[in-house]
Automatic annotation (TrEMBL):
Protein name: Inner membrane protein
Entry's transmembrane regions: 12-31, 295-313, 325-344, 350-370, 377-396, 402-421
Record InterPro entries: Uncharacterised_IM_CreD (IPR010364)
Organism: Pseudoalteromonas luteoviolacea H33
Top-level division of the source organism's lineage: Bacteria
Pfam family, one: CreD
Keyword terms: Membrane, Transmembrane, Transmembrane helix
PANTHER family, per database record: INNER MEMBRANE PROTEIN CRED
One GO cellular component, as annotated: plasma membrane
NCBIfam families linked to this entry: PRK11715.1-1
Length: 449
């Protein structure tokens, strides 16, 4: 008889494992659905960027000088055109961002309008030797990633005189931006000061390239969830519930910007220049697709814990539960994630999580109470499942501690299972279940006769 009991428990375990594996099929479909909806949101954001303005990156300002010089070769003198670039000695940038949102259907994108106060000076003493009649043009150039975001109120001054800004950079390596022609006589000074109030509209990110021998950058915004990006972290930052401020500083020794900039404008090797930035990304803290994806990563753990609890109830109650009933419980757990993603698109992640949790726990509590003919066990099952979902929600909010919380939860659950079942006679439970079922059948047959 013991061999029969072993076989029955073994078959039950194999069947249960098969049900769990089968349940991973809808879980994978739902995970793919989350990825698909997230991709649609990214496409919508790109479409909004195409119709307004995209992420912004400031490169500059810098001086672009075209001049002629005479070269003698083989007793033949030729006049050739040459160009020179001058990076600022000091560069100060303060960006004040004001965020707003644009919607298309149920999808949204975070945009900003920024007032960028820029100042600094160039050392041009080494250019004094250039003859004025040999200088073809002098331009102050800004590289701007998306010039559609430039506001009409932008002002640029050189040597305390306002200059006109024209579209384009005159360069093939840095195509997007603006340039301002300035007088050749400006090169006769020791230093050349500049200042600008640059109004920009952008989406999600703003970055600054530290072109100066000494660069100071500060940013502030009415956004409480900044993600500091680039190759330079801020020296200091202050993040509150409503806004943030941050400050960066870099020197020529830490940036090697002269060499990197020369590689870009002379050899069109600009990858390193584009990456050598300091800036911020405006992270959406309620990205329900990201949180839903994190939640479904724990789907297997939730299914295992719930199925194990269901199986323990079967053993303790000595009432056989059909694999189809296990399947119904598992499908309810899978539908939880489908409800979560669909509701969060309209109600927000937190409210959607509460509704999905109440729906799943209420349905499963009612179902377990009916299967086991015990309303109290149904209530306990619902409360336990609600507690499990509450712990999962806490893990989603504490991403840095998710692994620790998950490990502790698994250990605690395993400890509880071992404590509750330490006196269970597994063979006896199976035998008791079989005997009870046999008695019920015999009683039914006796009633018919």
């Amino acid at each position: 008889m013991n061999n029969q009991n072993k076989e029955k428990i073994g078959i039950k375990f194999v069947t249960l494992i098969g049900v769990i594996i089968f349940l991973m099929i809808p879980i994978m479909f739902i995970a793919d659905l989350i990825d698909e909806r997230s991709s649609i949101q990214q496409q919508v954001q790109q479409e909004i960027a195409k119709s307004s303005s995209d992420e912004q990156r400031l490169i500059g300002p810098f001086l672009y000088i075209e001049y002629e010089r005479e070269v003698t070769r083989n007793q033949e003198t030729k006049t050739i055109k040459n160009k020179a670039f001058v990076l600022p000695d000091t560069l100060k940038v303060h960006a004040k961002l004001d965020t707003f949102e644009k919607y298309r259907s149920i999808y949204k994108a975070t945009l900003y309008r920024s007032i960028n106060t820029i100042s600094g000076e160039f050392s041009v003493a080494h250019l004094n030797e250039l003859e004025a009649d040999k200088v073809l043009s002098v331009n102050l150039v800004f590289g701007i990633q998306d010039i559609r975001g430039i506001g009409l109120d932008s002002v640029l001054k050189v040597a305390n005189k306002e200059v006109d800004m024209l579209p384009g950079t005159l360069l093939t390596s840095i195509k997007e931006g603006i340039h301002a022609p300035i007088s050749v006589s400006a090169l006769s000074q020791e230093t050349l000061a500049f200042s600008a109030d640059l109004h920009l509209q952008g989406m999600m990110r703003l970055a600054v390239s530290p072109l100066g021998s000494e660069t100071h950058v500060s940013m502030s915004a009415n956004w409480p969830h900044p993600s500091f990006e680039g190759e330079y972290l801020p020296l200091s930052s202050d993040i509150s519930d409503e806004a943030f401020t941050a400050r960066w500083q870099a020197s020529y020794f830490s940036t090697n910007m002269q060499s990197i900039f020369t590689s870009c404008v002379m050899r069109n090797e600009c990858t390193e220049l584009m990456n050598r930035t300091m800036g911020v990304a405006l992270v959406d803290p309620v990205d329900h697709y990201l949180k839903s994806h994190r939640a479904i990563n724990y789907a297997l753990l939730v299914i295992l814990l719930v199925m194990a609890s269901f199986f323990l109830l079967e053993l303790v109650r000595s009432e056989p539960i059909h694999p189809v009933q296990y399947g119904f419980v598992g499908f309810t757990l899978a539908i939880f994630y489908l409800l979560l993603i669909s509701l969060s698109e309209h109600l927000g992640f937190g409210f959607a999580y509460v509704i999905s949790t109440l729906s799943a726990t209420g349905l499963l509590g009612w179902y377990v109470a009916g299967v086991l003919n015990n309303a109290k066990l149904g209530v306990y099952f619902s409360l336990g499942l609600a507690m499990l979902y509450s712990l999962l929600y806490g893990m989603l909010g504490a991403e840095d501690y998710a692994l620790l919380m998950g490990s502790l939860m698994c250990f605690i659950v395993l400890s509880l299972v071992m404590i509750l079942t330490r006196k269970v006679n597994w063979y006896g439970s199976a035998q008791q279940s079989v005997s009870k079922t046999t008695c019920e059948i015999d009683h039914a047959q006796g009633s018919k006769t």
